Amino acid sequence: MTEIRNYTMNFGPQHPAAHGVLRLVMEMDGEVVERIDPHIGLLHRATEKLAESKPYNHSIGYMDRLDYVSMMCNEHAYVLAIEKLLDVTPPLRAQYIRVMFSEITRIRNHLLWIAAHGLDIGAMAVFLYAFREREDLCDVYEATSGARLHAAYFRPGGVYRDLPNQMPQYAASRVHTETETREKNINREGSVLDFIESFVERFPCCVDEYENLLTDNRIWKQRTVDIGVVSPDRAMQLGFTGPMLRGSGVEWDLRRKQPYEVYPELDFDIPVGVTGDCYDRYLVRVEEMRQSNRVIRQCIDWLRQNPGPVMIDDHKLAPPQRGDMKEGMESLIHHFKLFTEGYSTPRGQVYQAVEAPKGEFGIYIVSDGANKPYRLKIRAPGFAHLASLDEMARGHMLADVVAIIGSQDIVFGEVDR
Amino acid sequence: MTTPSPADSANTEGGQHPEGGYLSGLAARFEATQVSGYGEQTLVVDRTEAYSLLRALRDDPNTRYEQLIDLCGVDYGDDAGLSDARPERFAVVYHLLSISRNRRLRVVAYLPDDNPLIASVVTIWACANWFEREAFDLFGILFEGHPDLRRLLTDYGFIGHPMRKDFPLSGHVEMRFDEEKGRVVYEPVSIDPRVTVPRVIRHESLE
Hints:
By secondary structure, chain A is α+β, with helices and mostly antiparallel strands. Helix content of chain A is about 50%, strand content about 10%. Chain B is built from five helices and nine strands, in the order H-H-E-E-H-E-E-E-E-H-E-E-E-H.
C-alpha cells in the first residue's frame, strides 16, 4: 500500500487573492485544507510605537494608513478617544460632517471590497462598476481634505475645515474635448454638498447593478453559499465584530447599541444574516451600502440648513485664525505652542470604539499627562477575523480559502499595524 | 490604577452601571479593586486570580462577557509618574464586551519585570490566541497554557521585544541586500535617534 502524505503549501506573500501581504502555510490533504497557519506582520510599521514618540495630532495621519481603505473611520476612533480624554465636545456641525464622511468611507470600503472579492472568485465586471462610483467618492475626499486617500481631515475638537463651496471641475485638454468635459462637469457645477447629493441620488441604482451581476448569479452562489459558516456563538468566541458578526445573525452595531456623535438622530436599519456563510456576509455588506446612503442623505439635509463652526473654539486645541495671529500676541503664542508642543491630556486611560466598515475599530490610550500618549493600542477588527481563518477554512477546498479571505474583508494595514 | 481625574466622577454618577453590585461582588471574591474613570469600569486583579475572574465574568449570568474585544500589554517601565499607583512593570489589559447586556469592562493584571507570566485565556475566548501571541512578541509577556506561543508581527529571527520602553524607536539592526555576498545582511542601525517634539507634562493637566 502506498503511503499517503499531506502536502504543505505556501500561499503568498505575493498573491493577488491574499489582499496584501499574507503568507499562509497550509497543510493540504489533496485539495482539502487540513490546517492553516497565517504568517502576518509583513506590513508591520510599528504604528503604536511611533505614536508614543509623537504629539497626539501627529498620529492622525498614521491612522489613515492603518486600514487604508476606510481612512476616516480610523481617524474617527482616534479623535473620539482624545476628545474623551480631554472631555471636549465638537460643534454639532462638525459631528454631522464626521458622520457623513464616516458613511462615505463605509461605502468606499464596501465598494473596494465588492470589487476585490468579486475579482478573487471570478466576477470580473463588478470591479469596473464599483470603481466607477469609488472614483466620485475619491473626488469628494480630495475636494474636502486635499487628499484622495489619506485625508487627515478629522481633528480633536472638530474637522480641519468646512465643506468647500465649490466642487473642482474637469478642464479641457489635448485628450479631453470641450464637449466631453462639459458632460463630466454637469454635477460639479455647485458645492461639494451638491455633488455628494447627486451621488446619493444615483447610488441606489448602482447598487442594483452590482446586485444584478452577483446576487442571483449561479456561479457566485456556488462559490459563496455554505462556505465558511460561523455560528453566532462561535462568532462571539472568535471576537468577530461588524459585518462578520451580523452575517452570523447577531444584531450588533455600535452605531445603534453604543451610539457616538449624532447617530442617535439618524434613521437607518441594521441588516443581519441568517446562516453565517460568505453569501450572507455579502448580502449584509450590500445592504449596508444602501443604509449608509440613507444616512448620508439625512446628513446632507441637516448640513444644508445649519451652517456654523466646524471646530471647537479653544485655542489650546485648535489653531487660531490666521488674521488674529497677525494682530494679536495671544493668538500668536497659542499658535506657536500648539504647533511646537501640542496639547497635554489628563492622566488616565480610555477605550473608544467606532463601527468601522470592517467591524469594531478601537483605540485604547494610556495617558500620563504628557503631550504624547504613553501607550496607544489599536484594536483592529481584521486582526481577530484573520485569526479565525484556520477554523473557518478547515475542511474546505483550496479555492474556498480565497472566498473566505475575501468575505473577511482583510486589509493588512490594520492587521499588522 | 491611575488617579481618577475630575471628569471621572461626573461620568460615573447616575446609575449608569446597574451591574455595579455584581461587579463589586465578583471583585471581592477575587480580591480585585474596582476603579472607574471616563465612564469606563476597570477591575485591577492579581495575576494569580486573573484567569478565574475572567472565567467568572464570562460565565456568570449577571455579567456574561461573551467577547474578548482586545488584549494588550503595557510597559510602565520608564515612567516615574505612574509608579506610586502601580507596583509592577508590566500590565496585561483585557477589554471585555457583553453583547447580551451591552456593557464593557476592562480588566488589568500587573506582572513583575523578572517573571512576566500569566495564565492564558485561550480556553475562555478563542480569539485570545493571536492577541496573546502579539503581547508575547511585543512585550515578552508569557502566557502559561497557550497552545502555540510564537512571535506574530515581527520578522523571522527577530531579537528583543520592540514595544518595551527600553527598546529604541529605530531598533537595533537594519538590513540591506549585499551585492557581494548575494544575500540580505543585518547591520547595526546607522540612524541617530532624535526627538522632534519633546515630551512635556503640564502640571495643570495633572490637577
